Amino acid sequence: MTTQTSTRKTPFSWFFDWYNQLPMVRRRTIIGYVFIMPFILGFILWFLVPALVAANLTFQRWNLISPPTYVGTANIERLFTDPILPQSLKATFLFTILSVPIGLVFAFFLAMLINTPIRGIAVFRTIYFLPSIVPAVASAVLWAWLLNTEFGLVNYFIRELGGPKIPWLQDPGWAIPAFIILSTWGVGGSMIIFLAGLQGIPEVYYEAAKLDGAGRFRQLWNITLPLMSPIIFFNLVMGFINSFQVFVSALLITNGGPQNATLFLVLYIYRTAFQSQNMGYAATLSWVLFFILMILSLIIFRVAGSRVYYENAD
Amino acid sequence: MKKLNMSRRDFLKMMGVSGASLAASAGLDPFLLHTLAQEPVQITFGGWGAVAEDEGVKAAIEVFQEEHPEIQVEWQHTPDAGEYGTVLLTNLAAGTAPDTSFILSDQYETLAANGVLMDITDRIANDPLLGQENYFFEPQEAYRSAGGGDGRWYGIGSTWVAPQIYYNADLFDEMGITPPGFLDDEIYDWDTFVEICKQLTVDTEGRHPDDAGFDSENIERYAVDWNWGWQFLGSVIHSNGGQYLTDELTFAMDTPEAIEALQRMVDLIYVHHVSPRSATLSDLGMTNTQMLDSGRLAMAVDGSWALSWINSNELGITVGSGAIPKIVQPASIMQAHFHSALASSQHPDEAWEWIRFLATPFYQTHFAKIGLWLPNQTSMLTEEGLQTWLTEGIHPDNYANFVTDYLPKYGIAVRLPSGYIEASNNFITPAFDALAAGSAAADVMPAAVQQANDVLAMAMQM
């Protein structure tokens, strides 16, 4: 009876029989692949396949209703005559160039603040972090109210201080600053990463610097910033990629307006695909976004990456 | 009790024999055979809408299914209209489109031209109710429903909606100002409208726009908040003898009449200071409804659908209504979505039954009563018909004039051509934004119209 049980085949016994005969190195390699399989599958399903489909669509015209038709390079040629694309790129670059540094400095400043050992610091940390966990839709609706020209709280305070009535979301010149304020409000995520970095700097460095007579600014410049440079670099790259993909707030608050001032590239792609019903051109625009991000990422790695200090690097 | 020892086969035999003899004796056998043989056919119905529309559709489904036990309707609801347009397109691409659907007016022509919508022309013509002469509010219904310009029907206009003025009747009473109405001699001409707007607008010191020292940056009460949607600006353009879209389905807002009309809209904000700058984004911040209710606004120009929330029952003020002012003639663009069956439906007959039901009085009355819709059937506009939907507290006293007098005379139906959404999103709306920010209409409109018409021309070639 006992013998019968031990020899009974389970559905995967063939696999375990084979696996148990392998040398240890091969077994570890297989386990490694099993662990990274969720990523590999995700990469294939959610990036590689859509990217290949988008590459194919670049040469098609497809309105989502009738079958796609081959149009050669018409979609690529359209990139050079499209009057909206330059406007969309301008909005996206302007927003990125302004919002990323401002966000980084602000998040770093907040992280330094909440790194101070004072009573009740956990409360402050929570308060500063909260905006970043408010869902994007809710925060968009909230800011639409706050930035309202006539009745918004922001304009109320500005006017109480003697300032003018700013048409935040009506004037193309003010719309990008409005979105920068909105994005700065949500820097809690970067702030927490900075905080973790700050807390990882051994206190002994500061003590030694103090003994040598270094002031607060000198400590910041010579200890904090160099040791934080990998984290600053990480937040820079992530902030840059995220800001290039700003979408939800623009869709909900201004829907690309006023006068296409906030028609960021991803919003333009979405609009072209699902409202203008031009999937082929939207796919072409997606590739434009991909190449821009790739080229600029390379530049950032080349320019800023070399200035990053890794304590444990060889 | 003694247990019956009966096999399953015996039991079925017995039930079959007794059932058949019962049916035969009652003369019901054809009916029974039919219903036993057929499960109810399931069809899907896609659409959008806020709570009122969602509940209205559910109520309609209940009534319909009582009348048609052989058909089950599954309501696929998306709250936002714009979002629904995207949902429908992706469903079409995936081959999972519903059997029947709301169709956005700006998608209708494109979908009809691409063969997505079922041709229901013959079904309407042969229908004993819908096929009756003068059943629909004409000529708009036939004009607009004949999508693609081939005279065929691919949907039935769910209803009619049109711009109107909502006003704070208490305030007009208090100030002794004659409010606008819908009859010819009650419609404001533009100069009178501006004059009255100036009387109604006050800054925080109680001064009016023409008074010395008037502070346009600190206005306590605005006279009018004018929705800057295309129907509203389009109506003003038609009122000045221009056109929003020509009969050839091209934008025509670069004509002198159109430019003059649009400039008057800009002037309401920047020259006369009687309208808030945020009118372009009326869905932000304090809505026109809250402004009316709180006394910070005297009039709101909005769609007739807004009557379902701008009414005396909902607000703390008495709400009155009237026609939008005329420049050279009264004009009002009438528009709304369609109910269509999709050509891909596996159940065209059942889909038609449901679409047909949506154009019968029950469904129309439900939405007309709550102020959301204007009926699309002439029978509901007769003396008797009006009694079935005009509701005290929702519809102001003079509301019958809107549908029986004003709209038949001055209502304008428009067709929105293929490519309209892209042209409008990319060029026309930004041009309207520029006007709302104070740009001169003559500087903005010609280029925008040219670019928008290029998009329409490109869409025509596809």
From TrEMBL, chain B:
The keyword Cell membrane applies. Signal peptide: none annotated. Keywords: Cell membrane, Lipoprotein, Membrane, Palmitate, Signal. InterPro entries: Bact_solute-bd_prot1, SBP, TAT_signal, TAT_signal_bac_arc. The keyword Lyase does not apply. It comes from the Bacteria. NCBIfam families: TAT_signal_seq (TIGR01409). This is Extracellular solute-binding protein. It comes from Phototrophicus methaneseepsis.
